[in-house]
Each structure stands twice: as structure tokens, then as C-alpha cells.
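Obj: model holo form, ligand = S-adenosylmethionine.
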Amino acid sequence: MAEAPGPGAGLTLIATPIGNLADLSPRAHAALAQAGAVLCEDKRVTMKLLARHGISRPLLALHDHNEERMVPAILARLRAGEALALVSDAGTPLLSDPGYRLVRAAIGEGLPVTAVPGPSAALMALTLSGLPPQPFLFLGFLPPKGAARRARLETLRAAERAGLAATLILYEAPHRLAACLADCAAVLGERGAAVARELTKRFEEVRRGSLSDLAARYAQAAPRGEVTLVIGPPEPGAATAEDRQAAAADLDTALRAALAQSSLKDAVAAVARATGLPRRAVYARALELARTC
Ligand code: SAM
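Output (holo C-alpha cells):
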């Protein structure tokens, strides 16, 4: 198989280790060593990685707070033919890390953009979770506050009611893990999950169980270190209390519309046919609605 040439002029996104510094690939090593400059989140973190591998290159800080401002100057250097490397503190750049605005701008200008693939906590956690590997949906971090987090999960649950059935991957801070798991159990319903902790490091651990079991486990003691949460897809036919409420509301809407146009008997027949619900259940609800109308 023909191999890609080493990174030349342009922007190269380089995946770096997520804990074990030995996980830097030979191609990542070469690309970093040849770069005119390395764009990085935290210079101290990248300096440590480069020093461990005997690489010394100029570092340029690129983080969430300065990315927008830095883009024009970086594009000018790329246009002039420089080879620039982009790394984040850990794993694959852009995934819950800076770089998206720069990459989008470079692509928009037709400048060369390539990548050296490598570690990512999301994919490693997915492969170790024991949950279906595809389809998967990477959610990054959910909002840190409870109400906003539950609202985001409600949106997701609505998509599941409409047919989405994917394994979910989330990043979470260790001190919020128990609350996040409890919210997931409440909104998404009971299902299998895995908490992957300290991947590639000395205390690497994957705990698998139901969302509520894991929530109870981590409510006793928050985990130490970094965690990635993987949640299995909904079981076919599984329904949360909210799903049942939503289904009841849908049934009422359908029945009211049918009752406004036809006899009780015809309305029940039509709605039972359309919803697939047992005719007896639809009839009982139609009687209740007709009584209260
Ligand atoms: N871009 C990175 C990647 O590709 O993995 C992720 C960056 S994101 C800012 C950092 C989050 O990733 C952490 O808060 C944690 O949720 C997860 N993470 C990073 N390293 C990890 C590890 N060694 N084990 C488990 N999760 C990890």
C-alpha cells in the first residue's frame, strides 16, 4: 500500500497520547519534529510531551479564548507555505478541544489540511465498553448545570422516540459523574452503560452496569482521574415514564381529531389502526374523553 508522504506545507492535526506518553506514533513524532511551529492548548503540557520525545519546536498557544483572534495570522503563515502542526493537551484535536474554527477557515481558503491519527478517549472507551460500536453518537461534554443537562438529554430522548438508536459517548468531569449518570437514568430510562476511567494510564478501569447502578456506585465516591461515559442505545420497546406520558398525549390528540369527524366506533377503529394500540385500550380512552368533553 502506498504511504502518504510526510507532512509538508500546510496544517497537520496531530493526535497525541491521552495519558501514556509512549502512545505518540512514529508519524506524529516526525510531523512534530518537522513542523515550523506547533499550535497547542497549554504550552506546559505540550512542552512535556515534546521533551519526553526529544523534540524542540517553537510553540504557539491556540485555545478557546484566542482561537478566533489567532486565525488570520495562522492563515497568513500557511499561505506563505509554512508547515504548522496542531495538537491539543490530549487525544485528537477538535474533539471537545480547540481547532475547529482554524480548520474550517483553512479549508475555506483551499489551504492544505491533513492529520496524523491516533489516540482518542471517545473511541477507546467505545471499543472497551462492550456496547454496540455502531452507530454511535459523540456528544462531548453535556452542560454542567443540572437543568440544562436534563434539557439536552430530553432533546436526545425526543430524537430516540423518533427513531434514533445509537450508542452515546460523553466526556464528564469526575465530580459531576454521579449526577450526570442519575440524570441520564431519569431521562433516557434504564439501560446499559460503561464508565471508562484513566484510559492508557496506570489505574485504567472500565466499569460496566446499568445507568442507575453506576449512578449509585459513583454517588458514594466520585472517581479519581479522567472519565468517559458510554451509554447503550434504547432497548426496543423500552419506555420511560415520560415516553408513556407523550404516547398518552399523542393518543388523546388522535382520538379528539377522529371523534370530531366520526362516530365513537369509527374513531376508535381508525385510531387503533393508525397507532397499533389494542382496540380495547383505545375504546376505553375514547369513552373517557367523550365523557369529559
Ligand atoms: N480530544 C480528546 C480526545 O480525543 O480524547 C479529549 C479532550 S476533552 C477536553 C478531555 C476529556 O476527555 C476528559 O475530561 C475526559 O472526559 C476524556 N478523557 C481524556 N483522557 C481520558 C482518559 N485517559 N481516560 C478517560 N477519559 C479521558
